[in-house]
Specification:
39% of the residues lie in helices and 15% in strands. It is of the alpha+beta class. The longest helix is centred in the last third of the chain and has 18 residues, at 97-114. It starts with 5 loop residues before the first strand and ends in a 10-residue tail after the last strand.
Length: 136
């Protein structure tokens, strides 16, 4: 059984990430999600014992009981929290799961380049914008 709230740590300076979180915010009628934008200047890095650069590498969330989840599991948990459990279940099907896992891994590695923020990348390592939004 899920221990709400689910605190989702996201990069609000990423336009794709920001749109996904905006959708989750609209669908969260039961207020099960706490959405924490680690790109904001007022973000408190002591709110979780994970560095902002690691939060920027792959999406993280923390259940109400303190359990941390990452990657696709965060999306599945968000979808279930807002009533899109069917979508979460579909991503667990044996033929679909490897495709979705690989697609998210590719997106996570390339999201800064995809969103026009490649200046925050060096080689295969991309840093998050923790001091505010990048000017485009």
């Amino acid at each position: 059984m899920a221990s709400y709230p689910l605190t989702v740590f996201f990069d609000g300076a990423c336009p794709i990430c920001d749109r996904e979180i905006a959708l989750m915010r609209r669908l969260d009628r039961h207020r099960r999600l706490l959405l924490c934008d680690f790109s904001r200047p007022d973000y408190d890095p002591t709110s979780i014992s994970i560095s902002p650069s690691e939060l920027g590498r792959i999406i993280h969330a923390r259940w109400g009981d303190g359990t941390v989840i990452t990657g696709l599991d965060v999306f599945r948990a968000m979808w279930e929290a807002v009533g899109l459990g069917l979508l979460a279940r579909l991503t667990r099907l044996s033929l679909i799961e490897p495709l979705v896992v690989n697609a998210y891994a590719w997106f996570a590695r390339n999201r800064l380049r995809l969103t026009g923020r490649s200046h925050a990348c060096a080689g295969d390592t991309c840093r998050s914008s923790i001091s505010g939004r990048h000017s485009e």
